[in-house]
Specification:
The protein is an alpha/beta fold and 192 residues long. Helix content is 42%, strand content 10%. The protein is built from 9 helices and 6 strands; from the N terminus they run αβαααβββαβααβαα. 36% of the residues are buried.
Length: 192
Amino acid sequence: MEELESLLQQVRACRICEEHLPLGPRPVLAASSSARLLVVGQAPGTKVHASGIPWNDQSGKRLRQWLGLGPEAFYDAGKVAIIPMGFCYPGKGKSGDLPPRPECALHWHQRLLAQLPHVQLTLLIGKYAQDYFLGGQAKPTLTETVANWHEYLPQYMPMPHPSPRNQFWLRRNPWFEADAIPYVQQLVQAII
């Protein structure tokens, strides 16, 4: 088994998709082999790219509220590992950021996950993470997958992206914050 710190250094030095990244490579992730909670989102946005701190934006603020965690606990890599599907900002698309580059997951995910033996719950934030981790068990749409969150426990918890752009989805699906979030908060508190 590779040591996690060495593996993280390799990831941070990686330039595998440099030619496709408008702001250049800056892998943003955090992990410790003692982490008990794993957060898998899409890819860093421009604010996170600039700061180098995962979820250091409005989406992260909402995510921490959903989890019932303050910044101190959330950013304690010994408790919470943060490994997005794409480690670098992928660029801007027509209606938001481009999808995460596929190279990160293909090249690094299995090696990184093997170094996280104590993870009890993986939060799958967004369709890219859900499709990757759930494979054929993912429903055709994000809404269907998230609506059936009970099916994936205790290993996985599918969630929508906490982006301010998802206000419409949250208004149309009030059950998520009314039912799923309190359950997630209980799970997270028990795990951490």
